[in-house]
Amino acid sequence: MDLYRLRELLRPRIVGLKDAGTHETLPAICNSLGLPFPGSEGSKSVKMSASFDALSDADLPRIAERFLENHPPAASVRNEIQDVLWADAAIDISKKNRRDVARALASEDIYLDARRFDDLLERLWVLDDNLFASLLWGVDNSLRAQIRQHVHLNPGDWSVEELFDNLGVFDASNRRFVLFIEGLSSSAVLPDETAQRRFVQIVNVPLSACGVELRETDVEDGYPVFHAVSTREASMGRPKNLIFASSVKPDLRFRDAVNNDIEIVTNADKVLVYDRPIGVEGLRWRDLQLWWSETKGIENNNEAKKTLYRRLMESLPENSPPQAALFDGFYRSFGGVVPFLPALMPEVWLYWDPKTVRERGPHALQRFRMDFLLLLPNGIRVVIEVDGKHHYAGDDGRADVERYAAMASGDRELKLAGYHVFRFGAAELQRAASFDLVKDFFRALFKRFGVDDRAHR
Fold it and tell me: Where are the domains of the chain?
């Protein structure tokens, strides 16, 4: 992200907020954006300048998002700021692939609700670029007027490809293009499930050429919700039940196999089951904490946070201080940003087999539990393992090639199923510099998968 450019774009707009209030109300304006206190000396311009200049680079993205939300600027400025914020988008779709999408839609009705289609265009594109000329000559030559003329009043004047070209779709940032395609697939623009699914089926053919697809991730008001995901990175399935924080093998049964409803038969206090829908944003700490507080009837947010953290920490094996070091290091590394980040869940069951290895035989499932799991945005699943001696040595402490082979086999299965597997050696997490190691790893991981680990919202 180009923080210099972001600061350059924001500064005159933030300072310009001086005209939105008096000397007495400037502190409230700054507070609403998360800006430092403006001080009490100087003109309103001096105060706002001082407040903005005291802002750290790490806080810039958060302030930019709040500014766009609370004080929407002209569409052209909005798009400039957004494109800087979205520069690190993980999904990359080339101009050719975008043009192929437009051509694939040539004979399709890309909207059924014209008003909401126009709302989508207003949110993402600059439609009033000729506004000054329109006011000067009394003729509306804006893109908005042209769309009304050539798309709504005279359908067929513009092909889908011409519409995309005039909007700037082919040259837009990756994130803007993704939001546009997701918006076109939505029930707001296509309030008919059959039409939604046909649209998705058509555009997924050209999108597949760049390893992207629109995938159903949720249901809203009875309509499917689609989001773009990388087929090269994401798992194909949707999580339905997360069985985690389990210090013992769960004793469970299906209460309703059709609906995938699970019941913990014994030791329910030793197993957690997260059974809520997990959308395109993945599973964040704030989602997990909300589930915990509602499940346990805890109304105080701080109490819910502390008790959940304690419960997760208690599920870690007593004989594995390295796992505790990684878990604690993750949450200490990000502090106040943690609620917006993917939750690091310990002791997650991947497979469940009611029979023991002795009962099942030598071909029983090898990898049945993961040390840690992260469910990132866009269907990306990350497994983190902490390898102690038992991963590669027998009970006598000597290297065990069969044990290592079983671990390698389990890794292959996970990767082929769409999981990303990262391993730490236990010795790494017992060194003096382990905290920095954990922090640097997760920052690199989040950057790799386009997760914003800065404070925001």
Answer: 3-85, 95-230, 242-448
